[in-house]
Specification:
The protein is of the alpha/beta class. The protein contains 14 helices and 11 strands. It folds into 2 domains: about 1-175, Rossmann fold; about 175-360, Dehydroquinate synthase-like, alpha domain (Up-down Bundle). Helix content is about 45%, strand content about 20%.
Length: about 375
């Protein structure tokens, strides 16, 4: 097992990464639960598969263990589900010293964290991510929240968990497409922060997909969490450098919006967004065409798309990018690679160059 610490002074917390950790979870987080009531929040898909084992383990140390199950899917990520979680917690008798445990993917973690941040003006929570995307990105760093009809993640809070328990055995049950989407975030982190992780992913793609080998998976996930933890420790609330974690996301969110959230998964949209951003970096002279192609080859090795889907015009994508909350003061904020392992934040890229980069990566 590996342990990574997110250093945030008195709010520092551990991320445990290993295969089969669920069996010994009480040993890892028992001290956070002893004598407290716990509410495990999970979705309808995971209820049968994983909830009974987690309930059994946590019962060994908590005073009482309750459950709150919401319908699986992004459509649940709304304020009414936060109200439902909080009301369930009140009925179960949870108080300010109780602990919410998120057992699930990104939607579950974001909502459970947000519920914990507002329940009785703030209680505590622990993340047990079950998807690769949640393990390497959304469960680490304290971004919590829900969607509004007007857009994704528009209401939320920065609220850090007390611990994150990553059991890579969950990945053995994931469909290949979902696993690929998680790798989009790993490749993103490598491109912006770490050429060594990038080279590791290039060399070990065959061991990571479609069947994740435990040793290589633990290595890749721990490395990615260490890198993300470093960024979060330096800029928790995204006032500057944390924004580089949004590499590929500004283009990606726009592509998701233009295609109505039905054609491409989030991770796939991020992969396409990275491919567009890299072409833009080539035209601005930041990286060579070979570097952009090296990135795209790795994305393809993890079965990710690198072309903008048909029917998604460059103008529509650029317009949707303008609505992204990651912009600042009305200026489009773009994260662009400067080499494999380094990226920068840019706000003055000419509109015509952005349009050309999208067109260059559009399906012919
Ligand atoms: N997912 C980007 C971040 O946590 O900042």
């Amino acid at each position: 097992m590996n342990e990574v610490i997110v250093e945030l002074e008195e709010r520092s917390y551990p991320i445990f990464v290993g295969n089969g950790l669920l069996k010994t979870i009480d040993g890892l987080i028992g001290e956070h639960l002893a004598g407290r009531s716990v509410c495990i929040v999970t979705d309808s898909n995971l209820k049968e598969r994983f909830l009974p084992d987690v309930e059994r383990s946590l019962s060994r140390c908590a005073r009482a263990v309750h459950r709150c199950v919401f319908p699986a899917g992004e459509a649940s990520k709304r304020l009414s589900t936060i109200e439902a979680i909080c009301r369930e917690a009140v009925r179960a008798g949870l108080d300010r010293n109780s602990v919410f445990v998120a057992l699930g993917g990104g939607v579950c973690g974001d909502m459970t964290g947000f519920a914990a941040s507002v329940y009785m003006r703030g209680t505590r929570f622990i993340q047990i991510p079950t998807s690769l995307l949640a393990m390497v990105d959304s469960s680490v760093g304290g971004k919590t929240g829900v969607d509004l009809p007007e857009g994704k993640n528009l209401v939320g809070a920065f609220f850090q968990p007390e611990a994150v328990v990553i059991d890579t055995a969950f990945l053995e049950t994931l469909p290949k497409r979902e696993l690929s989407c998680g790798y989009a975030e790993l490749i993103k982190t490598a491109v912006i922060l770490d050429e060594t992780l990038f080279a590791f992913l290039e060399a070990d793609a065959g061991a990571l997909l479609p069947h994740p080998a435990p040793a290589q998976t633990i290595e890749a996930v721990s490395r990615c969490c260490t890198l993300k933890a470093g960024v979060v420790a330096a800029d928790e609330k995204e006032s500057s450098q944390r924004a580089i974690l949004n590499y590929g996301h500004t283009f990606g969110h726009a592509i998701e919006a233009v295609t109505g959230y039905t054609k491409v998964e989030h991770g796939e949209a991020v992969a396409i967004g990275m491919s567009v951003a890299a072409r833009l970096a080539v035209s601005l002279g930041f990286i060579s065409r070979e570097t952009a192609e090296r990135q795209d080859a790795l994305l393809r090795a993890f079965a990710l798309p690198v072309t903008v889907p048909e029917g998604c015009s460059a103008e529509a994508v650029l317009q949707a990018m303008g609505a992204d909350k990651k912009n600042s003061n009305g200026k489009l904020k773009l994260i662009l690679p400067e080499r494999i392992g380094k990226a920068g934040i840019h706000t003055d890229v000419p509109r015509e160059m952005i349009l050309n980069a999208i067109r260059e990566r559009s399906a012919q």
